[in-house]
# Entry
Amino acid sequence: MNIRWRDKTHGGLNGWLEAALFVIAISALTVLYAIAQAAGAHMSVFIFYTMAASAAGMLAITGWGKDAGDVILARQSWVFGTATVGLEALYFLLLGILTPAEASLALRLAVPVSLVIGWLFFSRTMTNRIWFGAAIIIVAVIPILWGLDNARIFSATLLALACALVVSIKTFASEFHPWNRRAETVREKLRVTGLVVLATTLIAATALICSVFLVVYGILPANPMTPEPAAFWHVPTLALALFCGAPVFIAMTYLTFSSVVKIGTESFLGTSALTPFSALALEALAAGFGILAVPNYDWKLIPLILLGVVGVFIVISGRHKSAPSEIPAR
# Structure
């Protein structure tokens, strides 16, 4: 078997290798969220500072470029940014019903949702094998929703499907972003990614400022998603976002934009099925160094996660065999 470590057509590493590195990066970011929360950070503020520092860091390395305004104002940039901010809100609500491990498994619904979107809107090929793999993923998620009481099962199912839809839209936006598809070097890909993250940061800033304003003036009741003004000056939040969150977020978003053009949204989201295992390993490592207290893991979820992984591999193998060169050219 001849393994290609680099992609000569699109630049950078092989798309599958980048997707695997993305799994490690997003797992590291999940662990950082837990560390920041333990340090007293408000998650909305931590995420905002992380995105802002990431955009600044990427653009400091690459420069803005003459077409910066066009990249920022591109429809796909704002779809990606709005979906990113919306996903944080929806996932926050989902965590009010499911445990973090359960919510992570529920997000695997993004694979069948992305398959349906690709089939309906982007003429992706679907075979019986791919449909079968998608069905297995759904079967893996059903038990965590079915086990809820009647008052919560509908809300949890709706939120899980909404998160899956938003994740799919966000990833398709990065795959079909015209400047991302034209970028042929790591530096150019990093520049485009930085500009899109900047657009995302502007959307997040608008949402944060509006929510804080509405709560401070009593128009909306206080809620866990809206930080108090003092949270913006919390030193541990700033330090963790600048020196830990930003480097990981840069890696995560760059790998997303680079990999998704090479292997497609559906396959990229499929690799995320390994995220729970990667996150569990990094949590154990952080706990071993005494920097994170890890709660008891629900080991009963392992068979369901493994079942989801089986479904994902069936989907990926089905896509590869039915249409290995299906991803549209730039």
Observations:
- The mean pLDDT is 90.
- Residues 15-104+150-297 form one domain.
